[in-house]
Design a protein that fits this description.
The protein has 242 residues and is an alpha+beta fold. 17% of the residues lie in helices and 48% in strands. The protein has helices at 14-26, 65-71, 219-238; strands at 5-11, 30-35, 41-50, 55-59, 76-82, 85-92, 94-100, 103-109, 114-120, 125-126, 134-138, 146-153, 157-162, 175-183, 188-202, 207-214.
Length: 242
């Protein structure tokens, strides 16, 4: 088994912070904003980075209730992830709100420090058909939830199979605010936001497969996912399927 190794750094140089924020911007990576004292998370995107002024710009928060808190100057933290790299920083405040036709944009100063954590060599475990791990997906922009079967899973993402040709088709990097994975062997389920990646539509079999990347995973949920991956790998060994 390839073990997932974490490489963690605390970054304080503005030039490095600018590079990491620009990385999130280039990849259109969704981030989650948490205001101090609240469990509610608000989704956003890094729209631009100004290295000279040491500020960056965030898209309007979703759900919209976050806009009032941004206007009030409440302190918040930011979490983001892309390609196995997770990013966290805190003690931020909106310096200025720019009202545009397509919504508000928030001007925010660089954090003093930024935590940069990279996962390497994530092991991907295949799910035996005998286990039947059901998954449901919910995107606020879609009309109804979707059901699927888990094909494989790693610490950073998974692949699902849908018993239909998904309509409308998955958008590039489409965000699903809730993916719920039922883990029958543990009598547990986990719910977390995900991002759709590469989808394959099999018209002959009327099925869709799609890969998803986990985003903004909290520690408790990550621990459950990692435990499930290890369980699947042990089951594969036991059944001599590897």
């Amino acid at each position: 088994m390839s073990k997932s190794m974490d490489c963690e750094h605390i970054i304080s140089r503005p030039a490095e912070i600018a590079s990491i924020l620009s990385f999130l911007q280039r990849h259109h990576s969704p981030i989650t904003v948490h205001f101090r004292g609240l469990n509610q998370g608000y989704l956003s995107l890094v729209l631009a980075v100004d290295r000279k002024e040491q500020v960056f710009y965030l898209d309007e928060l979703n759900p919209p209730s976050g806009h009032k808190r941004a206007l009030a100057g409440e302190e918040f933290s930011v979490r983001g992830a892309e390609e196995g790299i997770s990013i966290f920083f805190s003690h931020c405040k909106v310096l200025k709100v720019i009202e545009e036709d397509e919504g508000a944009v928030y001007r925010v100063g660089f954090p003093n420090t930024l935590m940069h954590n990279q996962k390497r060599d994530a092991f991907r475990a295949h799910v035996m058909r005998s286990l039947e791990v059901p998954v449901s997906l919910l995107a606020y922009e879609r009309q109804q939830s979707m059901s699927a079967r888990l094909l494989d899973i790693s610490s950073t993402g998974c692949k699902l199979e849908f018993e239909t040709l998904v309509e409308p088709p998955f958008k590039p990097l489409e965000i699903f605010e809730e993916m719920t994975i039922n883990m029958p062997e543990f009598e547990k389920e986990v719910t977390l936001p995900v991002e759709a990646r590469h989808a394959i539509y099999n018209e002959h079999k009327s099925k869709t497969t799609c890969g998803f990347r986990f985003i903004n995973v909290n520690g408790a949920t990550q621990a459950e996912i990692d435990r499930f991956v290890i369980f699947l790998q042990r089951e594969a060994r036991r059944l001599d399927m590897r």
